[in-house]
Amino acid sequence: MTDTPHQPQSLADLPGKDPGLSFLGQKPFVAETPEELLDDETTPVARFFVRNNGLFPDAAADPESWTLTVDGEVETELRITLAELKSRFAHKTFRMVMECGGNGRSFFRPLPPGNPWTHGGVGCAEWTGVSLGDVLRAAGLKPSALFTGHFGADPDATGSHERQAMSRGVPVAKALEEHTLLVWAMNGEPLPFSHGGPLRLVVPGWPGSLSTKWLKRIWIRDREHDGPGMGGTTYRVPVRPIPPGSSGEGVEFRIIESMPVRSIITSPADGARLPAGGRALDLRGAAWAGDHAVTGVEVSRDGGETWTQAALTPLRNRYDWTRWTARITLPGEGAHEIMARATSSQGQSQPLEPENWNPGGYGGNPVHRITVSVG
Ligand SMILES: Nc1nc2c(c(=O)[nH]1)N[C@H]1C(S)=C(S)[C@@H](COP(=O)(O)O)O[C@H]1N2
Ligand SMILES: [Mo]
Fold first, then answer.
1. DSSP state of 345
2. Residue 369 placed within a domain
3. What confidence score (pLDDT) does residue 6 get?
4. What are phi and psi of 36, to 5 degrees?
5. Reduced 3-state DSSP string for 8-77
6. Pairing outcome for strands 273-274 and 368-374
7. Is the CB of 167 under 6 A from ligand 1?
8. What are 293-333's pLDDT values in tens digits?
9. Is a pLDDT exceeding 60 seen at residue 20?
């Protein structure tokens, strides 16, 4: 049976979206955010990227009666409405980065299949909800509970409800982190439909595909989850480097957990023109590193020969992004390329070109480059 609700044709069909987003596809619906539209400390809903793997589901007629099932390796199966989630558990609000696992894919050569994200499959919003761990403890995890499996209400790309477009999961330890939330509000407003309203997961630091929108069910499993998006080379990378363009056959792969370190310059915009005679240039941006902290951001205007340290702004909470500022002096008139690179608490920093080619095109985190011209 196919039952396909009205599907937005373009960005203009999603209420309140900034027309400056880059539209990557309609079926499934995908749009990323140009770096200069990520200049707000908290990414407004209007500028937050959208990534669907299937079609949009029907909108909920009555959000408060939206029901989540928690079943599998639990003492007591839960069927709980959004209203009950709100009344039974402690509310949490954290500002946290969400980033698509394929962010940066377009920088790989050869280009792997999939959405050609630049650096804009990311946003940092204030998410309000309850800790998934509090709900799992209320259900009572059996000793056999090992992994989660997440199920959304969206039909797959053919419009079928029989098969999930995507159903991913995490080890129970990640599910029990305080910051892993069941979310019903974004930036203080009811969670918009295009971002999974009335109820979604936010699993910070790990690929966005784990943050299931229109969340209906969490299946607690005694083994690694095996839904669509868990097999083959999907959301997996080789444990050792492989030649670019190769299939990876016979090579050991691991599931991606923490996302890599990345920084973007959010002001000025790529292509900005400065008045003649201008020499000092103020830069602003953001950096993040999955589960880890950003320990430094540097900028260069000479192709990476020399680097200038940026000043970092303190985080609001774990998984927030790091806003940064820097001032550089441009040598004179003409076009100048400026790059930014971040370093994580793991000691990893961004390469000039992506080095970790993989068939799914995950984890491409080269330095962000912009060009500004003077005069
Ligand atoms: N139900 C459902 N949840 C989903 C998806 C999806 O296709 N269906 N896409 C995932 C992916 S791949 C990403 S990157 C994030 C994007 O969230 P956003 O659209 O709110 O930015 O949602 C995730 N949650
Ligand atoms: Mo994604």
1. T
2. yes
3. 77
4. -70, -15
5. CCCHHHCCCCCCCCEEEEECCEEEECCHHHHCCCCCCHHHCCEECCCCCCCCCCCHHHCEEEEEECECCC
6. parallel
7. no
8. 999 999 999 999 999 999 999 999 999 999 999 999 998 99
9. yes
**From CA 113, how far away is CA 106, in angstroms rounded?**
9
Look up the CATH number of the domain holding residue 205: 3.90.420.10
What's the rounded mean pLDDT across residues 275-284? 89
Q: Name the residue of 17, 47, 51, 148 to mutate for ligand 1: max ligand atoms within 8 A of Cβ.
A: 51
Domain assignment of residue 1, yes or no:
no
- 243 and 282 belong to one structural domain: no
Best residue among 209, 218, 256 to mutate for probing ligand 1's pocket (most ligand atoms within 8 Å of CB) is 209
Q: What share of the chain is helix, strand, coil (3-state, %, to 5)?
A: 10, 35, 55
Q: Locate tokens 């962000």: which residue?
A: 368
Give the C-alpha distances (Å, rounded to integers) separating 23 from 30, 35, 49, 203: 6, 14, 9, 25
In a domain, 235, yes or no: yes
Nearest to 121 by CA among 183, 191, 48: 48
CA-CA distance, 14 to 128, in Å (whole number)? 22
Residue 2 in any domain: the answer is no
Full residue range of the structural domain in which residue 369 is found: 262-374
Mean per-residue pLDDT, 179-193:
98
C-alpha of residue 69 to centroid of ligand 1, in Å: 19
* pLDDT score of 161: 81
pLDDT at 224 over 60: yes
Residue 25 tokens read as 């596809």
Closest ligand 1 atom number to CA of residue 213:
3
Residue 159 is predicted with a pLDDT of 87
Q: Taking a C-beta distance cutoff of 8 angstroms, is the pair 79, 339 a contact?
A: no
